[in-house]
From TrEMBL:
Keywords: Iron, Metal-binding. Residues 39-141 form the Pirin N-terminal domain. InterPro entries: Pirin (IPR012093), Pirin_C_dom (IPR008778), Pirin_N_dom (IPR003829), RmlC-like_jellyroll (IPR014710), RmlC_Cupin_sf (IPR011051). It comes from Ornithinimicrobium humiphilum. Fe cation binds at residues 77, 79, 121, 123. Coiled coil: none annotated. GO terms for molecular function: metal ion binding. SUPFAM superfamilies: RmlC-like cupins. Residues 1-22 are annotated as: Disordered. This is Pirin. Belongs to the pirin family. Residues 198-295 form the Pirin C-terminal domain. Its cofactor is Fe cation. CDD domains: cupin_pirin_N.
Length: 330
């Protein structure tokens, strides 16, 4: 997914000390362009909390009737120095990119694209006879650490195995997670910093305790239902951040049950500049990436971002940079 804001803010992320205890982050609504745009609920980056581990971007969308809205229609656009994490609860999205991948992303399947030095891709809802009519899921970005920002772009796929637990089902799509019965569920997909990503479905009234890595900070995004996380109530679409130090978390569902996403990773420890769809370490990194994309616009197979066949042939131009030097914000 791309950031389609016409005047995106510059974000300098990471490097901050996590606050003590737990903090609830309320979402802001962002339309994905056009009069019939699908609106997403964005919780990262937000004022006061720009990252959770290496996670630097979190959009939550749906349930969206793609027959009414057109769903997700995002033409070719670029990325640098990050990984895109696509996880669906329902629906189907076609992913194309300049590595040559043409994939259908379905619920329970992780699609992880590593941009590295540069990649371009598109994401379009699958519609038509026999296709799912409801799109619903999350899109995340993770920042690549120094030393890995220029890796060659590539795509990883993983079918996460749903694991039955007392009162629900857990699907781990990144990293590993300890269950109350001593089992450890893990994903084989490579990440460049330690990460956790898991979907948890809880039955009405269920109470589930999970094991955590105490060196991680964590986030819980509630999709639907009623939920308390270690005694803190969470409303749908809100994101709860907790600082490192916890070795377990207890999830308590209300009368409707709950569907949530659990994220985690050690505090990133580096500053990144994030503007539009680019991650860099400096103003110059972002300016160079924008200039190269504008010169290529997804039509140069030998360029930094490459090219691929996209129906219609259009691509997304980058917004105009602000008339000041991109610099840290406090």
């Amino acid at each position: 997914m791309t950031n389609l804001e016409a005047a995106p803010d510059e974000r300098v992320c990471g490097g901050q000390e996590p606050p003590a205890g737990a903090t609830v982050i309320e979402p802001r609504l962002v339309p994905l362009g056009g009069p019939r745009a699908m609106t997403v609920r964005r919780t990262l980056p937000s004022r006061g909390r720009t990252m959770i581990g290496a996670y630097c971007f979190l959009d939550h969308y749906g349930p969206d009737d793609v027959s009414e809205t057109g769903g997700m229609v995002v033409p070719p656009h670029p990325h640098t120095a990050l990984q895109t994490v696509t996880w669906l609860f329902s629906g189907e999205v076609e992913h194309r990119d300049s590595t040559g991948a043409v994939l259908r992303v379905r619920p329970g399947q992780l699609n992880l694209m590593t941009a590295g030095h540069g990649v371009c891709h598109s994401e379009v809802s699958v519609t038509g006879p026999g296709a799912p009519t409801t799109l619903h899921g999350v899109q995340l970005w993770t920042a690549l650490p120094s030393g890995s920002t220029d890796v060659a772009p590539h795509v990883d796929r993983h079918d996460a195995e749903p694991m039955a637990v007392d009162g629900g089902v857990v699907s781990v799509f990144l990293g590993e997670l300890g269950l109350a019965d001593g089992r450890v569920v893990s994903s084989p997909v490579r990440t460049y910093t330690p990460l956790l990503g898991a979907e948890v479905r809880l039955e009405p009234g269920a109470v589930l305790t999970l094991g955590l890595d105490p060196s991680f900070e964590h986030g819980v995004l509630l999709d639907r239902g009623e939920l308390e996380v270690d005694g803190t109530a969470l409303a749908p679409s809100a994101l709860l951040h907790t600082a490192p130090g916890r070795s377990t978390t207890t999830l308590r569902a209300g009368a409707e049950g709950a569907l949530l996403v659990l994220l985690g990773g050690p505090p990133f420890g580096e500053q990144i500049v994030m503007w539009w769809n680019f991650v860099g370490r400096s103003h110059e990194d972002v300016v160079a990436a924008r200039e190269q994309w504008q010169a290529e616009l997804g039509h140069d197979p030998h360029g930094r971002f490459g090219s691929f066949d996209y129906p219609g042939g259009e691509s997304l131009p980058a917004p105009v940079l602000p008339h000041v030097r991109l610099r840290p914000r406090t």
